């Protein structure tokens, strides 16, 4: 070998060594062991329906947030159609987790393993609120995966998904955790799942499949994507393992899911409301109304309270409260920290139970509302029919709002019912005028309104 050839071969060898070392030093993960060990527990789910629903699955979410359950090209009308999704085995005796929207309305469910063996599955139970379902197949010593013990997942952490996007069996995609605790309320404004957001490529057919961490534990169940094209654009959402674990345990025991229930309608606290309630910054869930006979009423919670911690967990926004309350076992006594009259107080509450077919009221709390005389609006007494219809014993109704006034800037509308100004209940026009007259100029005060039957709070700045 001449000197030139020796130099080239030596350089090539060093280049190969340098490339390998660089890859190792880069910290990029190697997923091959996880894929080899965990793929056998991931299954393809084939669903037959005589009368299938819409392609996008659950219609209660915005169009851009597509469930990724998709039907194949349809047969002639009147014949059964086949849909598909993914799932994973969590016990050796055949329990399988998938999405509710994958099996919803199914006439039959077939589970296909990685070795192409097939089983007919029984639907043990479903939970539409979390979009989870529990199946079971008749088997023993089956391959299985484990749900992670807690939600100690970090933003930026590597994760990977295994599933059957567009029917392509056992496809693997990887990415990182983009965010945690994402709130994606349904059209019915229910919000019980603090979704994990990732940039893992998730597509139709991945529904119900597992999201793994680098330890090979399932940290989430793939459920939704944000898309304008029907395919992945790097915004996917998964149900966290703690939520899945809670749902699975209940479905195993009873076939249905009961959630913790507080019995309040809530809204977010914005900067204006934070100032009016004496908070340093916007935080907590503002109680707009308390349901009669609810755990909240029994604990002495009132409209206008701001819940800042619940059972030791902080409540940064109103969306956080249903996530926490829903996971608490009904009947448990917990401590709640509230802000009332600019003071921090604690209350003990026995959490109630919200059954599978019951609903809990909540509000996304976009503010709008009120004031009078010096505040720039005219009000009248509320007639008896309005009082009865809205379940209130007193208040005033807004009949006019002066453009550019404090009331207008706060978003007060004609027809709003005002039941509270600052901390003072409003029973009549006379009481309203007295309360408004005593307000200090320059301060921000909360007003409680009823608008089109829905209660809410807004913050209003009193003119100097």
Automatic annotation (TrEMBL):
It holds the Pfam family Trypsin_2. This is Probable periplasmic serine endoprotease DegP-like. SMART domains: PDZ. Its EC number is 3.4.21.107. Its main location: periplasm. Keywords: Hydrolase, Periplasm, Protease, Repeat, Serine protease, Signal, Stress response. PROSITE patterns: PDZ.
